[in-house]
Design a protein that fits this description.
The protein is an alpha/beta fold and 221 residues long. The protein has a single domain, classed as Spore Coat Polysaccharide Biosynthesis Protein SpsA, Chain A. The longest helix is centred in the C-terminal third of the chain and has 13 residues. The protein has a seven-stranded mixed β-sheet, with helices on both faces. The protein is built from seven helices and 13 strands. Helix 4 packs across helix 6. The radius of gyration is 16 Å and the shape is globular.
């Protein structure tokens, strides 16, 4: 199975830092954020990786190269002149991902999620990894009932940034730019989305403060 790492965003919540350094290349310990996810994917046998890039893309491409230094294969889906958002970016990369299910992971999360037991059921279009609501997303995104992802008035769970998708999930989306959460919502209403909860390590490193918290726990772990 192929995988795509989402790395096209501008990282504007980091302020001036990401005007010169793309957020995926910000360091957490000795590795950049995106390298942590490359290592996670490689650990579980994902050796054929697509990375979508836009903002400061040349820096990311020059830093990671073709993947040979990690003993994997990396291809790039270039979004120009602006990022196509999370859903649009994945759809644009389907020419590289192919017509079979693939794994999606955000470049700005840090996690120890075990990818070996993660799969997509034959009749579903998406399988999501969820986490308990962090402080920065207290209202949550979704809930789970008997293994199916649902939406309630008060949602207990947040999408982790990890999923397996069937490319057919994008068939009704014709625009160039759209959010992945809108794709999920369409299929949740049709009961085509499963979910599981990850109770281990997970950080969404979307701001300097969250990076600091992750660094403290990373150093002390």
């Amino acid at each position: 199975m192929k995988a795509i790492i989402l790395a096209a965003g501008k990282g504007q919540r980091f302020g001036d830092i990401t005007k010169k350094t793309p957020k995926p290349l910000i360091k957490l310990g000795k590795l950049s954020l995106i390298e942590h996810n490359i290592m996670l994917l490689k650990k579980y046998g994902y050796n054929d990786i697509v990375i979508n890039v836009s903002h400061l893309r040349d820096l990311i491409i020059d830093y990671l190269g073709d993947g040979s230094k990690y003993d994997i294969k990396i291809e790039y889906s270039i979004e120009d002149p602006e990022p196509y958002e999370t859903g649009g970016g994945i759809k644009y990369a389907l020419n590289l991902l192919g017509d079979k299910p693939f794994l999606v992971i955000n470049s700005d999360i840090y996690t120890d999620f075990n990818l070996s037991n993660f799969e997509l059921n034959k009749n579903d279009l998406a399988s999501l990894v969820m986490v308990r609501n962090p402080n920065h997303n207290a209202k949550g995104d979704f809930s789970i009932f008997k293994g199916r992802v649902i939406v309630k008035e008060k949602n207990e769970l947040t999408y982790s940034g990890i999923s397996i998708l069937n490319p057919k999930i994008f068939e009704n989306f014709k625009d160039h730019k759209f959010k992945l959460i809108d794709v999920f919502l369409e299929q949740i209403k049709k009961d085509k989305v499963t979910g599981q909860i990850h109770n281990g390590t997970w950080f969404d490193i979307g701001t300097p403060n969250r990076l600091k918290i992750a660094e403290e726990l990373f150093i002390n772990s």
